Amino acid sequence: MSYQGDFRVSEVSPERYVIDMKLVMLLAPLLIALLLLFDRMPSRAQVTLWETYQSAGHQAIEDRRVADAERLLLAAAKHIETISRDDPRLANTLNDLGVLYGMQNRDIEAEPHFKRALAINENTFGRQHPSVVLTLQNLSVIYASQNKFSEADKAAREGLEIGLQLFGAYHPRIGSICRTIATVYTLEGKYEEAEGFAERSIVILENTLGERHPETAQSLEMMIKLMWTTHREREAQILEARLQTIRQRPSSDSESADEVDHNDDKNPAH
Predict the structure, then answer these.
(1) ∠266-268-270 over CA atoms, to 5°?
(2) Where are the domains of the chain?
(3) Its pTM surpasses 0.70
(4) Residues 84-139: tens digit of each pLDDT
(5) Cα–Cα distance measured from residue 116 to residue 16, given in angstroms and rounded to the nearest whole number
(6) What's the CA gap between 20 and 81, in Å, rounded?
(7) Cα separation, 72 vs 58, whole angstroms
(8) 7: Cβ–Cβ under 8 A, 6 or more apart, which residues?
(9) Fewer CB within 10 Å, N or C, the chain?
(10) Closest Cα to residue 234, out of 3, 10, 6?
(11) CA dihedral in degrees (261, 267, 269, 270; nearest 10)?
């Protein structure tokens, strides 16, 4: 569930750019997190009420109904806490609340939710787990948004290190993590470092998912925005034209948007 703004890339100011990139990076992991979690559910009946609140809250985030989303997710958290304060389902809800608050620039409120989600996931699954990587990605962006750059760098690098151990160097999830790190560096104003990770993300995603995949498009859009932010208008226009050409090209069966196999997360590379 990745959000993509309806504005033209060439019209984005540096300030609007970093806010939009934060939105993209916070929202992108949500669907993956839900897929990972539902795959581990022991009993469908056991989670019906939590899932009702959680799914409705998740949909409200997609629809930008922030008041409804907060009410529903708080209800989901309250319900699952009556079962266990260390339940991984609670971590998923806390992550979504953190995303919701981050969308509204309520970063101070988002941070403790991500921290608690991280603690629950680490306690439940250990440090080497995809859910831990996802939460570290979100934390790194929230830290950077608050100018906590040392904490942001640490969380981003830890997420990358664990991701490399879980998935290997050329997995789509590594492409996503590299894009997150590029976002963090952009928020820090380290545009050269940001561009390096954005380029790495593009290479990985083009080679694993194909150039027409939405994940690849997000990374290309990030690179375009970086070029506009650093006043490299001609390069940005060339890359914009390439992206437009890609989008107009007929899709092939091997490059459909549904191609990502989330089961790869259950069989990480060693």
Answers:
(1) 150
(2) 9-249
(3) yes
(4) 999 999 999 999 999 999 989 999 999 999 999 999 999 999 999 999 999 999 99
(5) 29
(6) 33
(7) 9
(8) 16, 20
(9) C
(10) 10
(11) 170
**CATH numeric code, 9-249:** 1.25.40.10
Rounded CA gap, 30 and 37, in Å? 11
**What string of DSSP letters covers 144-185?**
HHTT-HHHHHHHHHHHHHHHHHHH-TTSHHHHHHHHHHHHHH
Q: What is the amino acid identity at position 63?
A: D
Residue 87: phi and psi, rounded to 5, are -75, 135
Taking the C-alpha atoms of residue 51 and residue 92, their distance in angstroms, rounded to an integer, is: 11
Token output for 142:
């929230």
* pLDDT, tens only, 188-245: 999 999 999 999 999 999 999 999 999 999 999 999 999 999 999 999 999 999 999 9
Asked whether the beta carbons of 74 and 96 are under 8 A apart, the reply is no
DSSP 39-101: TT-S-TGGGHHHHHHHHHHHHHHHTT-HHHHHHHHHHHHHHHHTT-TT-HHHHHHHHHHHHHH
Three-class secondary structure of residue 230 per DSSP: coil
| Interacting residues of 179 by C-beta distance below 8 A, sequence separation 6+ | 25, 197, 198, 201, 218, 219, 222
Amino acid letter for position 83: I
d(CA 93, CA 102): 14
> For residues 270 and 260, what is the distance between their CA atoms, to the nearest angstrom?
20
The token duo for 170 is 């050329």
CB 113 within 8 A of CB 98: yes
